Amino acid sequence: MTLRVTNTLTGEKEPFEPRDPDSVLLYYCGLTTSDPPHLGHARGWVHVDVMARWLDHLGYDVHHVENFTDVNEKIVARVGEDGDSEESVARHYVQQVIEDMRSLNLGRAEVYPRVSEHVPEIVDLVERLVESGHAYEANGSVYFDVTSFEDYGKLSNQSVEDIESQGADTEGEKRHPADFALWKAGGVDPEDIADHQHPEAAPAEDACQTAQTWDSPWGEGRPGWHIECSAMSMAHLDESIDIHVGGQDLVFPHHENEVAQSEAATGQQFAKYWLHVRLLETEEEKMSSSLGNYFTVADAVEEFGPDVLRTFLLSTAYTSRATYSDETVSEAEERWDRLSRGYERAVEACDDVDAYAKVTDEELRSAVEDARDDFGAAMNDDFNTREAMTALLDLTAAVNTHVDSHDEYDSQGLRRAVETFEELGGDILGLSFGDDDSGDVSLAGDVVDLVLRVREQEREAGNYERADELRDELEALGVEVQDTDDGPTYRI
């Protein structure tokens, strides 16, 4: 069965046909690193992770790029709270994102580009747009002329006349209200961060003094939000890519503007397939940092573990509405428990003395092959993880039926079931079937915490030499300890 994907650009579910039949260029709009990642972000991460895993399973050479937006007014708003400059705040949250990604068992993207390291590429792309007549300079800023791009609005299915404005129009600089900034003159205005600041942040004027700026042909300034993804995608993939993924809330204006500026600059189709992940909701609102109704990834992993969270996030297809609640998480816990117990029973029975080479259970073997077929059909139907997980639950039921109803087990049928759990549930859905390390990692963290508590007791007792020895011994084992005003922290 051919893979079919729902393309926002056409509004249709289409056969997937990459430009190169052997490889896939996939770009995912990553986070603005200004707040702790939450489960809404994790929904996108996990679904894109499974997309990349399935494409790899189909035999494609997958080139997966995901950016960090580390230059943004929201980051400046956190100065004094999570760092003493825009750069240090961004580094703080980039590190948090990386740790959270690893905690969710995400496969690594090929590269994670940051805006701050791609300013030359951004400036070059803006220059191309100015030279081709698609952009214009005004008082040191550069704006994209939406009326110069005939197809503007094709992704979000709206016309230029329907769009009232995009961003502030400083002193009437813009020719059309819908024109958007490619380059912003100067630094950050305190008024631009006032609505994003928390009480513990630095005064707005002081925070804005730490904002990064760069030289350009139009003077000192900062890149606009939309131009960054076009530049980084072109730098690490190509001027035309196969799949561009992002949250549903990015269709307009971010992705619409990416299409316009990229295709105006190159004359080529920017992305053939646009896939958008629906937002995670809680109490009928989207989960959002700005609304304060979020559950951080770090807290959720600590409370539920990565397998329950991945089960929760994948139990709804990426195009379907998903809701976080106690009930939906409890359902995911029960579902993961059934899957993991089914796998464990298959392993135990397969390794049991009563598993025989000549025992054949055609119902079990047929159920295994049905599960594999159903899983593949689901994934090829627009990465339908909900139905794919249902196929594994059906396999669990077949294993339980076999073990409960037989005194002698079909060793070959059970072995095939074990392989199916590990290949489809583990390699594709990223669940820890057959992975015995998860408990060890958790235990290691508990042991480190215990050693650090002992170290603190030694320091309080004045035994500084012994405290230093404990720290050195931890670091020799690969545990980096940092002493802060709030106590010691560590990373492995």
UniProtKB/TrEMBL annotation:
Annotated GO MF terms: ATP binding; cysteine-tRNA ligase activity; zinc ion binding
Alphabetically ordered keywords of this record: Aminoacyl-tRNA synthetase, ATP-binding, Cytoplasm, Ligase, Metal-binding, Nucleotide-binding, Protein biosynthesis, Zinc
Subcellular location: Cytoplasm
Locus of motif 'KMSKS' region: 286-290
GO terms classed as biological process: cysteinyl-tRNA aminoacylation
Catalyzed reactions: tRNA(Cys) + L-cysteine + ATP = L-cysteinyl-tRNA(Cys) + AMP + diphosphate
Segments forming domain Cysteinyl-tRNA synthetase class Ia DALR: 374-440
Cofactor list: Zn(2+)
The keyword Metal-binding belongs to this UniProt entry's keyword annotation: yes
Positions contributing to Zn(2+) binding: 29, 229, 254, 258
EC nos: 6.1.1.16
CDD domains, sorted: CysRS_core
Binding site for ATP: 289
Pfam families: CysS_C, DALR_2, tRNA-synt_1e
Chief place of localization: cytoplasm
SUPFAM superfamilies: Anticodon-binding domain of a subclass of class I aminoacyl-tRNA synthetases, Nucleotidylyl transferase
Any Gene Ontology CC annotation: cytoplasm
Membrane spanning stretches: none
Record note on cofactor: Binds 1 zinc ion per subunit.
Locus of motif 'HIGH' region: 31-41
PANTHER family with a match to the protein in the record: CYSTEINE--TRNA LIGASE, CYTOPLASMIC, CYSTEINYL-TRNA SYNTHETASE
Homology family: Belongs to the class-I aminoacyl-tRNA synthetase family.
Name of the protein in question: Cysteine--tRNA ligase
Organism: Haloarcula rubripromontorii
Origin organism lineage: Archaea, Methanobacteriati, Methanobacteriota, Stenosarchaea group, Halobacteria
Gene: cysS
